[in-house]
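FAQ
Q: What does a multi-component entry look like?
A: The components come first, one per line:
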Amino acid sequence: MKLNVNGKIYSIDCDPDSSLLDVIREKLRLTGTKRGCDIGVCGTCTVLIDGETKRACKVKVSEVVIGKSATFTDSPKILTIEGLSDGDDLHPIQRAFIECGAVQCGFCTPGMILTAKALLDKNPKPIREEIRKSFTPNLCRCTGYQQIFEAVEMAAKLISK
Amino acid sequence: MRIPHPKDWEIAMTKRIDAVEKVTGKAIYADDLKFDGMCYAVPLHSKYPSAEIEDIDISAALTSDGVVDIITANDIPGSPRVGGLIPDHYVIAKDRVRFMGEVVAVVAAESRSQAYSAADLIKVKYKPLDPVLDPRIADSKGTPKMHDFRKNNILSSFKVRRGNVERGYKNSADIVEEHFETSFIEHSYMEPESCVAIANPDGTVTVYGGMQHPFSTRRYVARALGFELARVQIIQTTLGGGFGGRDDTIAVICARAAILALRAKRPVKITYSREESIRESYKRHPFIMDYKAGISKDGKLQSMDVDILADAGPYCAVTPFVIWRPTVQCTGPYIVPNVRCDSKGVYTNNTPTGAMRGFGTPQQVFACESFIDICAEKVGMDPLEFRKRNFFRQNITTHTGQKLDNHEVSIREVTDKALAAIKWKTKFPKCSRGKPAKDGFLHGIGFACSYRGVSLGAEGNDFCSAITNIQPDGSILLEVGVSENGQGLKTAMASILAGELGIRIEKIRFIDTDTSSIPDGGPTVASRGTLVGGNAVIDSANKIKKMMTPVLKHLIGASKGGYIFAKGKIKNRESGKTISFDDAVAACHAKKMYLHSLGLFSGPKVSWDEDVGKGNAYFTYVYGCQACELTVDPSNGKVRVEKAVAAHEVGKAINPQMAAGQIFGGIMMGLGFALTESIVHKNGEIQNLNFNSYRIPRSIDAPEMTAILVENPDPAGPWGAKSLGEPTNELMGAAIANAIYYATGKRFTKTPITAQEILRAIGGKI
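Then the predicted structure of the entire assembly, as tokens:
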């Protein structure tokens, strides 16, 4: 099986019923995607598949492999936190999370940042209420969410510049 | 009471030094580790809350695919029981199980799924016993004893005595009584427990894991192995949240991993599923509390009786500390001339309980601050006016006999600031009190106040150390005896060192806690990290400066006024002659000088006399007030907290943005405690083992929050800093309960105050 993750093609050998989360973490060793509940309610394993937020623990790897007839361009594109920025250059959302103090223990942070990306890609200037609603699938126990909302607002400004 | 401290804008604006690795997904948490030859272990939990184990047959499991090893209680080489205060916690259940999360065997295999398959084949023969599930009868006649080596089921008890309560009631115009109860609360750190143990070639063992007190983990592991402390090394990995919950449970998990690693001579990883984590990990104690007060005609508290009963589950953990603190602080920040408080923690077969953000105060403050509003209403006073008549004042003597004269008593200041920000005066009279407003909702506003002893207090031994190790090029390695929990400790410690040495924070590398490198600094709990760690860092910096003095004399001349370390330079205070920090360091190195120092902090003297229930319990205190504005939907009972304001006196905020983050997180955790969170046991078995049924606040529940930092620098703190983590989490419960009362006209005395409870109380259809 082949997967398109962060713009790279990975060949993997595993049970097609494996969760995408297991494959990302254990086979691809991209450990930025976290396991918090394994039942799709905490959002720590959030990845983007073709720009949509998905809980990797609830996605079977067979659902997102590159089909035999599919070409590279029309295969499902999976984005994990490792694919968001290149090298030392941080993505504006990552910069905003740091600037606004939106990171504490950091365990929810990769999922939060990818949720923010999905939101801002669709809605470049969200109002606070839209941001509040967008993060409902992602749990955070440290921050109380407020500085995450502020980070999304700052990121929106950074991106539009 | 003004303490000089570097007012460096850059330091106050410092961003987390561990943020880049966290936003890029590169930070390594324990489950992210992988070693050659690593195998995976899983626990087998009990089937009963209380039972004798008659037999465990692992023969079929041992031959199952991929199994490496299986351990039961008989395979523990050292002590079968561990514990910080009372060693009553079985590493693996021996002969008897005492709660549903008790581990009876641990299976290691080539993969987790193979380990689970094998665990299913273990045959355990139990003889079920009647479990003790009600703490109120835990010590009644006929209730079986939890531990043979204990006298009875009372784990610990404390008291406070002042004056004569009966005489106080005689002087009272009104007497008020109320009963309060709180629920089991799950810490809900987002990272479930995880560790990897490695057997080293020299016979020692190294355990990597996410824990908030690596030294307590080391004691547990060493005790279970029968090893000396030096043979056990604990290295803290990035911790995915603590909140007090990363101590005993992760420590016994590490002990099991270490036993397996030494037997298998292979790295062993144990990572819990969320269900395993919630089933086995200790919770916040549910409290049953009774408050009674006598109040004079002029609205002054005359007497107070307080009883606190805490369900400890079968194991002690830090239960004595958790009930001692609310006992000491039983009156809240109010002058009460006659006080009796008795508290006890009892053993039951429910899930064990231990430290959780607040150490018993979220429960007690919920009761006390709800009760104060009840008292105010009884005497026909506004809750603010009633509090103001009774608040602690500068230099008063508290109910434990402690004179508050060594710090600023700022309870009025925080209350005034919080209530001004939320516009209490104009909003309070407009509360709905049961009559829906034009918009169809019930509107309410409420607040709560608290005072809180800083650090461990007289029940603990408060000391800490820090190592500043300056390299020949001027870069610095910093280690501190307390640990990063996600709260930002590394950043705070590095900020303090940077400020003291007048250098850029980027020159400092903070080394994560390694128990084989730095001395035990005590637990990173009790909101003590900044205070004890920061003071140790300052001491280590001062020692470095002293070491450098002879070389500085040579380089930039002697100075009676000393040297100023600022902006990367060292300046002779008298002559103004300067040298760069790096050049001075290089010169010291050339003179065969190691700029390496061990900074120490030892807490000021505190005291507690258990027999008379009096003492100077803590060396200083912080004060806080939180207020909230909410609406209740009368059609479904749902509460929406619209606004929350918190004013906390922190001494000095080392990093205001991170301090605000503590406040926002504390408010939200308090909101969950008030409205939705409760670990529900049915016959000792937890019914809500994951976040679909244990509901912590989500972003949609977040109110608009305002954090107000009140700074009255304290002589005991680094740059005057005190505490913040826990006080932020002890106030919202009562603030919400009070606001719900002014919205609905109904008083709720049990948490969580669910929509169903509200609907039932206001007579709606469920």
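Q: Is there any commentary attached?
A: Sometimes. For this entry: The radius of gyration of chain B is 27 Å.
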